[in-house]
What does this fold into?
Amino acid sequence: MIRHIRIAALLSLALLLAALASSCKKQRNATDSSQQYFISDSFFKQLGFDTTRIHTVESELNLIGSVAFDDDKVVKIFPFSGGIIQSLRVELGDYVRKGQTLAVIRSTEMADYQNQQVSALSDMELARKNALQAKDMYANQLISEKDYIAAQKELQKAESELRRINEILSIYGDETASGYTIKSPISGYIVQRNAAEDMEFRADSPDPLFTISNLNRIWVIGNVYESDIPKIKLGYEADVRTISYPDRIFKGKIDKIYNVIDPDTKALKIRVDLDNPELMLKPDMFANICVRYDEHIKLICIPSEAIVFDNSKNYVMVFHNKRDIETREVQIYRVTGSNTYILSGLREGEVIITSNSLVIYNALHD
It folds into this structure.
């Protein structure tokens, strides 16, 4: 019995000594760790810091789209009458000024308009003489008032017909008995051309010979799929990027939402209005559209570069002083561009390390 008591006492003493040794080792390691991970002044200058703040959560929606003409600044030119293109004066992409000749058309139909003009002029002269004669006769009571009014109406009718023909012929100008010229009604760029020299065409063709647009302002049309429709509203800011200029961001706003689902893409169309002063954006360019919108909730927002990802968890290095740097696990709500919104793990006003945070993390945990 005494022997068992002695063995139990020895075991208790051994466990107590082991615990004391472990405690001393931890204290020694803590002291060594504190000395080992002290941040020097030279390295301190290489660190970046930020103070946590509460911000309204801003989300992003990435859409696929393409550059298009601003239809409000596009003019489509259709032929006045059928004929053959005798001379073509412009190429696709050319800048033209208002009134500049685009093409000379040879058309037999113009001879008919010329004949109508001559006939209308002759009819007007005759009607004028008849009206003057009727006026004199009515003054001398040789004709009735009815006949006098009828002569005046015939004159008005003849003058109206002559004005109609003259206006038709003046639309394109430089008309001859065998043809006419097509001139640009606005200043802009030839963005579409369905014409070639010696090409024969009909007046009822559905395609315009020329399309002219002012490219200083353009549209970007994007596709919004059904699940994202509630996230889109008029006035939202949008960043547009293209393959041609991957480092350039074109900024605009959503100015129209087409409330019809495209049967081919099964998507809703939106329109982003953009300035294009350098004419970098061309119609039919492929475009990526990033739409930013607020979620109306507020969370801690920090730079995304402050996040350290390790073992399927996210950490932030919280700075207290050069000898006290805390590794804090955080729960991420959303990453939006260069910002990360934190659901839990940080409080407002804490100082965190942004630049070289991974170096500090590795030094503390190796």
Q: What stands out?
A: Residues 2-36 form the longest helix (35 residues).
